[in-house]
Each structure stands twice: as C-alpha cells, then as structure tokens.
Write a structure and sequence with these properties.
Blueprint lengths: L14 H6 L2 E16 L33 E5 L3 E9 L21 E2 L3 E13 L4 E8 L27 H26 L4 E7 L2 E8 L3 E3 L3 E7 L7 E14 L12 E11 L5 E7 L8 E2 L3 E14 L6 E4 L7 E4 L6 E13 L3 H4 L14
Parallel strand pairs: 9-18
Antiparallel strand pairs: 1-2, 1-3, 1-5, 4-5, 5-6, 7-8, 8-10, 10-13, 11-12, 11-15, 14-15, 15-18, 16-17
C-alpha cells in the first residue's frame, strides 16, 4: 500500500485545512434599553447608581448594552443569548431571530426640550481573542396608557394553534397578537366617539363667537377640525389664530427652579381674518412624528388648542361711496384705523398613539444595520 501524500510543510491536513479558513465567534447577545437624557438647566436628577466606566475594556467579556451611552438607563430588558461558539466557514451565513416584550407602562419615545426618552436595541458580539463589539439600533416606541388595566379573554382553549411553533413560543405569539388587537380596538373606540362640543367664547365686553368641535380625543395622524360661528356674537372679531401645541412640564420634585414654567411647542397653526364673516372653519393635522400625551415620574406631556382673538373696541362700519356707474352700484371701503383688543384661550385635548405600521411610514431610522467585528 502506498501511504497518502503528506501535505506541504506549514499546510494543515484534512479537517484542519477547512477549519483554518473559518471564523470562530464566541457569543452574541441582544437587549433593549431606554436612555433618559435630561436638560441640566431644567431637570434636577439624582446621581446615577451606575458607577461603571464609560468605555468597554478590551479584556472584558461582560455584555453591557448601555456602556458609553449618555444619560441614565430607565428601562432594560433581560439580555438574551443569540448563540455561543459559532463557527462560520467562508461564504457561510447564519440567521437568528430576536423577540422581546416591552413593559406596557414604560415611557414612549420622546424628544422634548427638557427630557428625551430614546429606545435602542443593542447587539453585542465577540470573536475569540478580540474585544466586544456593540451595534445599537434605535427604534420608536408608542405607549397606550391604561392597556395593562384590561384583562385578556381566557379563551385560548378554542383558539387555533400553529403546529410549526413550539408550545411556549405559540403561547407568546397569541398573547402578543391579542394585546395588539386590544390596543387597536381601544384606540378605535376612544377616537371614533363623536359628540357635539360647543364653547361660547367671550371677553369682558360680551360674546365673540361659538366654537364647535365634534370630538376632543384624537390619535397621531388625524386632523383637528373645528368651526367658528360669529353670527351671534356681540363683539366684532377681526382676526383669529388657532395653534396645536404640546405642553411639556417637569414634575415638581425634579424641577431645577421653584415656579419653573412649562415648555410649549407649536406643531400646526392657522390664522384667518374674519371681520363680517358669519361662519368659518379650521383644520390642524396632528403630526405622525410627534409623541402622544403621557406622564412619567419626571415629565408630563399634554396637548392643547391655543386660541388668540383680535376684536374691535367698538362697532366697525364700512364706508359706502356711490360710484359713477349705474345708480344701484356702490363701493365699500374699509376703515383706516380700528381700536382693537386681544385675548387668548386654551382648550385641552387628548392625543393618543396610532397604529405602529402607520407611524413607521415617517420613521427616519434606517431599515438595516451592520456590525464589523
């Protein structure tokens, strides 16, 4: 028998040759966390209890998703291991799925003037003999407050099952689906309920107008529609301005100064001259990219309609002059000077989240991310 030829010097034999071109990954884990960023001039936060260093040491093998992040971590899910001791040959790929349930009472994604809540999915991976590499993927979270107070129906015994899912995985998928359906149903019930809301708008001298709204609860992406009736007013209204605003107020325990005012942001506005107008309307869109109303132990966000009215100090008469044409033709001329009064009024409204699929259309986050290790 002729013995097999020996490989050249320095070249591995058999399976060692195949292993020489492969890559060995020690582990990979994933975790979701929410970072709180607060304005130092407006919010007085207690010192963070996390005394860890901001830099990931090369010799460490501990997965710390928020290491090096600014702000404080206010929410984190348990880390989940994606794989351990993974060997990949040249051209080979592996796919892993990650699934996590977020608390229903957590803060929503929010970027305000005093506080920011930022959610990220962090994936950590380490090659054998190399430092840990982290990939942070930002994403948006919408929270429907009060959802945890509702009990899911206990009819899983008659619900259809999927034979291709493990029992525990299938049970979790059913619960997620029921929770999503319940949230959608609650949103539809709360925002589709219509009833006539009439508001008499007056100043110190009398009635100016009547405001009509058909509902005061909206969801992101809807239009706030209202009508003004000036026909029954005692005081002539020259002009009005209506603005859709949010009020960001730091809770008293975390205010930097006593009597600290709230911060206001305007998302839409409409201005219109309305002298001698019997009826007019306005329509203000609620942006999909904003946050719905919410409240945490640090900050609260509320929505409102802010109105500004310019009224006449007396009766406004139009000057009439006869024209040189036919006898019945006349010319109307506006007055040059009018004594005016101004006043404002705020009407609170509620803004709830919308379907996440609809909100994702305006997302500015990238759909894919890469990590080089």
């Amino acid at each position: 028998m002729v013995p097999p030829p020996k490989p050249p010097k320095g070249q591995p034999a058999g399976g060692e040759a195949a292993a020489a071109g492969s890559e060995m990954l020690a582990w990979a884990s994933a975790q979701v966390h929410c970072q709180l960023h607060a304005s130092e001039s407006r919010v007085a936060l207690p010192p963070s209890e996390d005394g860890r260093q901001d830099v990931q040491a090369e010799s460490e093998t501990v997965f710390v998703p928020n290491r090096g992040e600014r702000g404080q971590c206010v929410l984190s899910t348990p880390p989940k291991i994606l794989f351990c001791d993974l060997r990949l040959d040249p051209g080979e790929s592996k796919t892993y799925a990650y699934r996590e349930m977020l608390p229903v009472d957590g803060p929503p994604s929010f970027r305000g003037q005093a506080v920011k809540y930022v959610y990220k999915l962090t994936v950590g991976c380490q090659r054998v003999g190399s430092p840990i590499k982290l990939l942070r993927v930002p994403f948006r979270v919408l929270v429907l407050h009060g959802l945890k107070d509702y009990q899911l129906p206990q009819d899983e015994a008659v619900a259809p099952s999927n034979p291709f899912l493990e029992e525990e995985e299938e049970r979790g998928a059913k619960k997620d689906s029921r929770l999503a359906d319940l949230a959608t149903e609650l949103l539809m019930v709360a925002t589709s309920r219509r009833s006539l809301h009439l508001y008499n708008i007056s100043n110190s001298r009398g009635k100016v107008a009547t405001l009509c709204l058909f509902k005061t609860v909206y969801k992101l992406g809807e239009d706030v529609v209202g009508t003004f009736s000036f026909s029954e007013g005692d005081i002539p209204c020259l002009q009005y301005l209506v603005s859709l605003q949010t009020e960001e107020r730091v809770q008293e325990a975390f205010r930097r100064q006593r009597g600290q005012p709230a911060s206001y942001s305007t998302h839409a506005r409409q201005r219109e001259a309305c002298l001698h107008t019997a009826r007019t309307s306005f329509s203000l869109p609620v942006p999909l990219s904003t946050a719905p109303g919410f409240s945490t132990n640090i900050v609260s966000l509320k929505w409102r309609l802010h109105f500004e009215f310019v009224t006449s100090g007396g009766a406004v008469e139009m000057a009439v002059a006869a024209s040189e044409g036919p006898a019945e033709a006349v010319s109307w001329t506006g007055v040059e000077q009018v004594e005016v009064d101004t006043f404002s009024w705020d009407l609170p409204i509620k803004v709830l989240p919308t379907n996440p699929l609809l909100a994702s259309y305006v997302s500015q986050f990238p759909s894919s991310n890469a990590l080089t290790i």
